[in-house]
Backbone:
């Protein structure tokens, strides 16, 4: 009996060694997906799909708290944004001539591309014939058109959970990096189509992210298994969404996004720990089809309530400007050094170790790009001294947004540690 058991154990050990040897010696260049786009060649599963918005009870219990992506087909078709958002409508709006939107100039994201601030109507006149891509907090003059999705019409979330809302606008053909978000995300598309590939967080050790834990250098058009062999051993979840659909992207799920055709989408980010603590039975019983973005506050919204607050903001801006110019007096600043200057050495190191997604990195890149006018990857004192006061104000706005986003990240991390 013992001899038989010993032989069985030996056989199992032999087979395990053989499997490990085969994996170690297999030619990855022959594996399906090698040198193809991200999402190719590996087992792929569909994302759950339902018609319209689920109730808050179903949404939070089955998807948010269970960390499962969800496609809500046709959920946004009855909203003003879906009906109204044509270029003619946008051009007809009465918009402050001094307001601007943030525009990236590369449709294939690399986190180091050039960016500019332009008037919204100037963007509208150029985006169809360029690679210009607007990535901007939803402007105040458009917020009334975006209805709060029925599934998240919850007072507790409105009071302390909403982080930001972002508008993504291009002529199509955009390709995001492979990344994660340190927030929960509900994205509704009002024009065009998008394709997303997800990787379950259980594979997080197989997706090589940058030191800050935000995104990967994987070429999303041509995955190189010899450079990233772990990609030959993962699984994907896949979904296509079209105008009128909404998609829930769970906290820290790895994903990559492509857009097709003239494309407008809006996402709402909320604090992950607030979503976990929320009691969905306290949300609204009936969906309010008139409740829109202008009716709620986000952590990155800034309301100046009196002259003292306004003066304090101006003082903070001058302090940052003087500090930054003093640094540049001694040496030029790279993107990595900018992160340490903006965050401080201790917080920069903490965020790198936390692997909390790409939102805060995006903001640092935006700040860096404001000053790196020749796009050589280095900021010099002469570049900073040539920056207009308007750009310095944009920098201060991004700094404020960054503070609030990091505060939301820290709240989520503290909550997870307490569970």
Residues:
């Amino acid at each position: 009996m013992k001899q038989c058991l010993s032989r069985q154990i030996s056989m199992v050990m032999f087979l395990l060694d053989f499997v490990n040897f085969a994996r170690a010696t297999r030619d990855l260049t022959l594996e399906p997906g090698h040198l193809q786009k991200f999402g190719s060649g590996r087992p792929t599963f569909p994302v759950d799909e339902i018609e319209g918005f689920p109730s808050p009870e179903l949404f939070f219990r089955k998807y948010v708290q269970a960390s499962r992506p969800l496609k809500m087909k046709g959920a946004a078709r009855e909203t003003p944004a879906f009906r109204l958002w044509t270029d003619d409508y946008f051009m007809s709006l009465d918009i402050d001539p001094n307001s601007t939107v943030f525009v990236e100039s590369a449709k294939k994201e690399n986190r180091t591309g050039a960016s500019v601030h332009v008037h919204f109507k100037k963007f509208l006149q150029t985006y169809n014939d360029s690679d210009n891509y607007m990535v901007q907090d939803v402007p105040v003059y458009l917020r009334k058109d975006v209805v709060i999705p029925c599934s998240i019409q919850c007072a507790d979330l409105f009071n302390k959970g909403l982080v930001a809302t972002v508008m993504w606008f291009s002529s199509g053909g955009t390709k995001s990096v492979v990344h994660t978000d340190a927030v929960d995300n509900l994205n509704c598309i009002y024009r065009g189509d998008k394709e997303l590939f997800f990787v379950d967080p259980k594979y997080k050790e197989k997706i090589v992210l940058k030191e800050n834990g935000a995104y990967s250098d994987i070429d999303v058009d041509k995955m190189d298994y010899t450079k990233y062999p772990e990609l030959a051993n993962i699984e994907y979840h896949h979904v296509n969404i079209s105008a009128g659909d909404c998609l829930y992207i769970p906290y820290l799920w790895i994903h990559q996004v492509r857009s097709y055709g003239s494309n407008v989408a809006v996402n709402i980010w909320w604090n992950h720990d607030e979503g976990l603590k929320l009691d969905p039975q306290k949300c609204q019983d009936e969906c309010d089809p008139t409740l829109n973005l202008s009716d709620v506050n986000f952590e990155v919204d800034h309301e100046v309530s009196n002259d003292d607050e306004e003066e304090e903001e101006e003082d903070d801006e001058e302090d940052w400007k003087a500090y930054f110019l003093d640094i540049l007096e001694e040496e030029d600043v790279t993107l990595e050094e900018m992160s340490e200057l903006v965050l401080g050495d201790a917080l920069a190191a903490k965020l790198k170790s936390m692997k909390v997604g790409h939102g805060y990195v995006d903001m640092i890149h935006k700040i860096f790009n404001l000053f790196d006018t020749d796009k050589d990857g280095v900021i010099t004192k002469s570049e900073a001294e040539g920056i207009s006061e308007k750009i310095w104000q944009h920098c201060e706005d991004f700094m404020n947004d960054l503070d609030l986003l990091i505060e939301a990240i820290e709240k989520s991390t503290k909550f997870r540690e307490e569970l």
About this structure: Confidence is low (pLDDT under 50) at residues 302-313, 412-419. The chain has two domains: 44-295, 307-418. DSSP finds 13 helices and 13 strands in the chain.
